[in-house]
Amino acid sequence: MRVLLAEDDALLGDGIRAGLKLADYAVDWVRDGEMAHLALRDNVYDACVLDLGLPRRDGLSVLKALRERGNALPVLILTARDTSTDKIAGLDSGADDYLTKPFDLAELQARLRALLRRAGGAAHPVLRHGEVVLDPADKRVTLRGRPVQLSAREYALLHDLLLHPRQTRSRAQLEESLYAWGEEAGSNTVEVYVHHLRRKLGADFIRTVRGFGYCLGGESP
Ligand code: CA
Fold it and tell me: Ligand 1 center to residue 141 CA distance, Å?
């Protein structure tokens, strides 16, 4: 899962980024509204955490431009302004959720999970395909009820595939969701993680779509 974080407060931004990285998100962090606008225009993200009070361009204007382009990216706004007017303006401009500063990092993570789940069309918090179950709240994966140990990248790849159960994901899409700016993806990394996941979850669990990418194999019950 790749997240754009737009926050100009260095201490807060650093804390949020560290917390999201611990939860295995790939995080791109920008510190002003113009950079946020360009990043959202030029990259594919799974979600955006957007401060409203940003230098160079206000968060609301960034959000409005995003929605005017028809982009339905889940956006959670952060606001120091504890007035209902700001929250209403944010929601009316296309935000999916908001948090008022100061907030608890665990709550930010829970709200992001909820946004990503809904964006994937799943109302249920637990993702399931065949006999594999992934619980994003505690990052637990089970196969036929037994826990499966996955590395952070394997987990992230599996999470991405389960969030898009009826889609073929291209290698580029999967790489984008695994790596933030400045993180070097090796040439075969997605293949390597798919190989590991097949070994742990079953050879047919992930299907190769030749020349394009991967999708979940078999039928979901
Ligand atoms: Ca700010």
Answer: 37
